[in-house]
């Protein structure tokens, strides 16, 4: 299954997330991101590719208030959220993250890991409803509700991380390398799951992928980031066909 057409009704014409000329970095005086601009529309799947160390994960961290933005803006649903406190990124801006490194509590069950996705809520009935909702989207997780997360396969663990990111009904999910460490077959399954969620519930996804070809094939649009700057952007099909992008990032000769 491939990405479906994003929703383009009038309310969704302005992007859900807009990053404008963002400069950000970890150490004083050292900008890792040097004027990054990108946008994510309601219902879109957008893929960010680029070499190791280019600053891809830093973009996510800066959007999430985990790395200081020194200049530029982050706008979410029309509101300036530049340098938002990380705890507000999910609860008020509605931005969920699936981080690059494995983030499950491996000795806790699938169910308990999902509960933690709602740690901001003390309403037990609401938490149960959301878990039922996620189980509806991922029947495989429902079958394994009482299994320890760390004993599941790599692909199942990634699905659980994606499921957990949906617990708080986010406006969008930022996924940092959803296919990392997975076999080609399971990578394919994960992209199918993302496309299915986009189709069924209109999920908006900004993802980073090392697996550039498959990531772009599963997306509507893409960006290439190199040395902290966007060097290519466009419709995914155009990036997949671009001779320079193919040579540098897609392994074509
Ligand atoms: N906590 C940190 N303190 C200082 N520098 C950092 C920190 N985290 C990352 N960096 C530096 O920022 C640059 C960009 O890192 P980032 O993690 O954003 O790259 P990336 O594009 O996601 O790479 P990869 O594909 O390997 O995940 C790198 O040079 C990295 O060394
Ligand atoms: Mg990274």
Going by CATH, the architecture of the largest domain would be: 3-Layer(aba) Sandwich
CATH top level class name of the largest domain: Alpha Beta
CATH superfamily placement of the largest domain: P-loop containing nucleotide triphosphate hydrolases
Q: What quaternary form is this?
A: single chain
Q: What is the 3D shape?
A: globular
Give a concise summary.
The protein is an alpha/beta fold. It is built from ten helices and ten strands. The two termini are 27 Å apart.
Features:
253 residues; 2 domains; four-stranded antiparallel beta sheet; alpha/beta; binds adenosine-5'-triphosphate; 10 helices; Rossmann fold; binds magnesium ion
Blueprint (SSEs and pairs):
Blueprint lengths: L16 E8 L8 E8 L4 E5 L6 H8 L5 E8 L2 E2 L5 H6 L3 E4 L11 H7 L7 H14 L1 H5 L10 H12 L6 E5 L7 H18 L2 E5 L3 H6 L3 E6 L2 E7 H6 L1 H7 L4
Parallel strand pairs: 3-8, 3-9, 6-7, 7-8
Antiparallel strand pairs: 1-2, 1-4, 4-5, 9-10
Helix pairs in contact: 3-6, 6-7
Bound molecules: adenosine-5'-triphosphate (ATP) and magnesium ion.
Adenosine-5'-triphosphate binds next to helix 1.
Description:
35% of the residues lie in helices and 23% in strands. It is an alpha/beta fold and 253 residues long. It folds into 2 domains: 1-94 and 175-253, 3-Layer(aba) Sandwich (Rossmann fold), CATH 3.40.50.300; 100-169, no CATH class. A 6-stranded mixed beta sheet has the order 6-7-8-3-9-10, with helices on both faces. A 4-stranded antiparallel beta sheet has the order 2-1-4-5. Helix 7 links the parallel strand 7 (172-176) and strand 8 (204-208). The protein is globular, with a radius of gyration of 18 Å. The two termini are 27 Å apart. The mean pLDDT is 92. Adenosine-5'-triphosphate (ATP) is lined by residues 26-27, 32, 50, 52-58, 100.
